[in-house]
Amino acid sequence: MADVHLPATLPPLFEGLPRQLDVEAASVGEAIAQLDARWPGLRDRVCVAADGLALRPHIRVFVDGERAELDTPLAAGARLDVIAAISGG
After folding, report:
1. Which of 26, 17, 31 is nearest to 61 (CA)?
2. Cα dist. 10→16, 17, 52, 77 in Å?
3. At the fourth CATH level, which superfamily is domain 2-84?
4. More confidently predicted of 89 and 4
5. For a designed S-S bond to 62, which of 35, 53, 73, 81 qualifies (C-beta 3.0 to 4.6 A apart)?
6. Mean pLDDT, range 52-65, rounded to an integer
7. What's the pTM?
8. How far from each other are the two terminal CA atoms of the chain, in whole angstroms?
């Protein structure tokens, strides 16, 4: 299982979505797909489908502190952090 940590901006959009949860997944993309199956529309907030599925430009993902992409594998006990960039002026 991976320990998933989500940005504070996501839970208010999806009823019952916690900021931290465990997901059984082999990759980052699979973890996001599982979250999307339980909270439909979540993948659209994190990913964009251009020539294939990719992380949105303002989303960063880290696995155990290392920058990751959708195809990055998740080992048992891995920590997956999804971070949304915030801008303002």
Report:
1. 31
2. 11, 8, 23, 23
3. Beta-grasp domain (3.10.20.30)
4. 4
5. 81
6. 94
7. 0.91
8. 39
